[in-house]
Amino acid sequence: MNQSKPAVIQHALTEKDGAIVAAIRAQVAPMKGKMVGPEARPMFDHIMEQTPEAAGVDYQDGIVGGVPGTWCRPRNAHAGNVILYTHGGAYVMGSVKAYRNFVGQIAARTNTVTFAADYRLAPEHTFPAAVDDALAIYRSLVDQGAQRILIAGDSAGGGLALVLLALVHAEAAAGKGLAPRAAIILSPWTDLALTGDSHQSRAEAELFLTREALESARNLYAGAHDPTDPRVSPLYGEPAGLPPIQLHVGTSEILLDDTLRYVERARAEGVNAEAHVWDGMPHVFPASVGTFDAAEEALSLMAKFAENKLRT
User: HEC states along 259-289?
Assistant: First the structure.
């Protein structure tokens, strides 16, 4: 493990991106904190569908491990490599239809076949349905012959990806299945107990989320279950031995500390985890490729990381 790299890499806000953030802030202000619950699914999907489609990627609906999703297949993808992507939406929103273009961008840039999972959502399907679905997909990918797997996700899906990373790593360490090679995580929700200081310190800077909205979503997903259960909140897990993890987060996020504290905890246990912290960027900003220069830069960093970790 290479721990010589800094835990946190800062990226400055460009003048162009700053102006765009200001314009978006004014546009979305009336919606801040209001995308909560099943009734907000159409609005959430509409926002995510704005990511431009990637060239050179074919899309195919499929079922893996009994869970529906979409295969994003670059036409010259490296054989044996697979990315499993779990989308965001606070465990109550989001779909692979909405995320198709963004996941396609990741697939294209990493030149890797990627499966975007349509895992079950709350409140119709509460914890541990999402975890069970992610596990079923991963195990099935291994059974189907995947040789090298990278796990990725954003927001709640980023937290879910980290939960999955720990679970399948533990299985592989016990001699069952295939160990994941690495993880790429965007603006993850790692602490459903909502104890991070950034819920207060970044509340005004945040464009989309509020602590109250996250609390509502948490209750729909986990109910009375202990939010510090590591299968709910990966921040409280035991990260020792996990493979390399690259994370991206903006400073205009109330979930900033969910990334920084996770990285601090992981590195204290010897994990090669690094957080790219982007000044002034909002939640899951890489989905705004074609809008933010920072999104393009972040995707390039993801591609280099994935290429390195998925080598034969």
Answer: HHHHHHHHHHCCCCEEEEEECCCCCCHHHHE
Contact 11, 277 (CB under 8 A): yes
Question: What does the angle CA 39 – CA 44 – CA 49 come to, to the nearest 5 degrees?
Answer: 140
Q: How far, CA to CA in Å, does 18 sit from each of 12, 204, 283?
A: 10, 16, 14
**pLDDT tens profile 163-184:** 999 999 999 999 999 999 999 9
Q: Where are the domains of the chain?
A: 8-309
**Rounded CA gap, 269 and 10, in Å?**
22
Residue positions annotated with a catalytic role: 155, 253, 283
At the top level of CATH, the class of 8-309 is: alpha beta
Separation of alpha carbons 207 and 90, rounded Å: 16
In this predicted model, what pLDDT tens digit does every residue of 213-266 receive, in sequence order? 999 999 999 999 999 999 999 999 999 999 999 999 999 999 999 999 999 999
- According to DSSP, the residues that pair with 103 across neighbouring strands are none
Task: List, in sequence order, the alpha helices (H) in 76-128.
Answer: 96-110
Cis peptide before 128 (omega within 30 of 0): yes
pTM higher than the cut 0.85: yes
